[in-house]
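--- STAGE predict ---
source: upstream dedup step, 1 unique chain passed
mode: sequence only
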Amino acid sequence: MRGPALLAAAAACLIAVSSPGWAAGWQQADEGTSIVTEDGEVEIGVWIEVDVPGASEPDTNSADPSASPCYFQQGDHTELNARLENDYVVAPDPGETYVLKLCRTEAGTQLVTFWVYRPAPPKEPPPPTLLETARLRNEAWGRMAIPEPITRTAPAEVAVVQLPTYVWVPAADRTPMSETATTTLEGHEVSLTATASPRRLGFLRVDMGDGNTLWCDADEVAAFNPARDPLDQASGCFHYYRHSSVNQPGLRYQVVLTAYWDVLVVCTFNGGPCANPPPAVPTQVLTARPHPLAVAEIQALGRFG
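--- STAGE serialize ---
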């Protein structure tokens, strides 16, 4: 099959030509047969045939095919460009293979047609399905154990009215963690990683037991440092009690702390993102056991003068 379609439009990824004459004369057509070259038979069924502008096969009246003035020869881009005229140039590509049709004329051997072929890339395996990625998500998620928060306060047992009471969780209870699950799909790896991290904004919600709720961002939560002034701590998670706990059950306020964790799920296939990522994991909410805290009111004696 031959036609006026240009190789530049039909297979631009195969050949690049530096001459503007390409659009004026080059033609291509797909062939569905094989040809015999000096190196043996070559299948050209998936090749692209290119007619050289201005070149034509010489007329022959012989019925004997062996008497034809034309023959086929395999070659590389160097030999191809050496036989092209009128400044036509084919850019080299190590992945391409060429078959040249050469015809003997009175002016010498002339290139009239050539075929170019680049092997098709290997077929990509189908991407993992939503069911497969969801299974991997559940596998990774099932191995992850976000710790139940443990409430820490300073002072630890008896706080004082009108002085800051700091609240935090141990470092292990606010350290990001990850789990990864992998499988193979037609020889290609599918990997899913679930990472749980303290929610950046509003990591801790603290019911202080006196009717006030304290919200602390992740970067505000730090352990109390006894070596520093109580009024000069790195932590921004603190509360001022205004009344003692003398009227509370057990003479203590019940401090209830809730931690919020965000979970990021990343699915990769062949080094890129999965086409069917699994559903997102909702924010995880973990509540600590109530922490009893006594609050005292200190009476100070003073004198004037």
